[in-house]
Amino acid sequence: MISRLRASRLPRVALVVVALAFCVYGLASRWDDTRHALTAFSWPYMVAALVAGIVGLATWMLGWRSLLAGMGSPLPLRAAVRVYFVSQLGKYIPGSVWALVAQMELAKEHHVPRQRGATAALLAMATTIASGCAVAAVTLPLTSSDATHRYWWLLVLAPIFLALLHPRIVAWTLNRALRLARRQPLDRTAGLGTMIRAVAWTALGWLLFGAHAWLLVRAAGGSGFFLSTGAYALAFTAGFLVVIAPGGVGVREAALTVALGPVLPAGAPLVVALASRVVMTAADLLWAGSAVLLGSRHPAVEEAELLEQQPETR
Q1: What is the DSSP letter of 262?
Q2: Alpha helices, H only, the chain
Q3: For residue 298, which phi and psi values (nearest 5 degrees)?
Q4: Signed CA dihedral, 126, 127, 133, 134: sign only
Q5: The whole model's pTM is what?
Q6: pLDDT band for position 266 (50/70/90)?
């Protein structure tokens, strides 16, 4: 289905419809708890948390876009929004490859080679997980002993994941994998400056997601920005690594409940976790809807935008 995304609108529409169906199922399967979570908070807190989530997702998109640009395929902002946020709906479909393949195929419409598109997507995922582990490793040992005890393995992995983001290690790993798959090696990989920019955008995203979690914790009567940030980073990372759970459903809520236990009364951590799920799902859907509404543009227009972003050479 997804392999024909670039050739027809029908597979793209099918991806959106299937992803929406899984989003609805994920919320409806625990509707009573979800409805309670929505009614437990004041709307100003919910709206503020949603805004933080929306901006956080935008920073992650900019991190992915910087990786593509550093590898020789800069995208106009409009095209980057469309490719990134439509493809991100694939994470709600069971399996770990839908978002990756969708992103690769949609980027191909904008003259991004599939191999380069896949590499940028994988690097963006690796950057997200490495920086998420680092955020959790820095904050949780100081704030949540229960989370540290239960998820110690994620904290141990943090320095390893960060070291693996070094450009030489990335290039060697990817080219080794390509050789094993009998594919041509990469003609260009991300340099140190590119990786630093991607990590910086991703880290900013974690702070914004921490703000979204903190707002919900405040609404539930708790406090602690650093705990909220580390708790969400831990929960998201755990949900991402458990690939059988689409969008980390269940896994993310369990980890967030454990991590927020020290600052909230009994029962409140689960309510916060469910509210966070609703808020971040809404942020994903709003971005995806905006990306779909952007529609496609004439190739000449996009080419002109791309040339404007590239430095003039003489």
Answers
A1: G
A2: 9-28, 31-40, 43-70, 77-87, 98-108, 114-143, 145-150, 152-163, 167-180, 192-219, 225-241, 251-260, 268-294, 299-309
A3: -60, 135
A4: positive
A5: 0.80
A6: confident
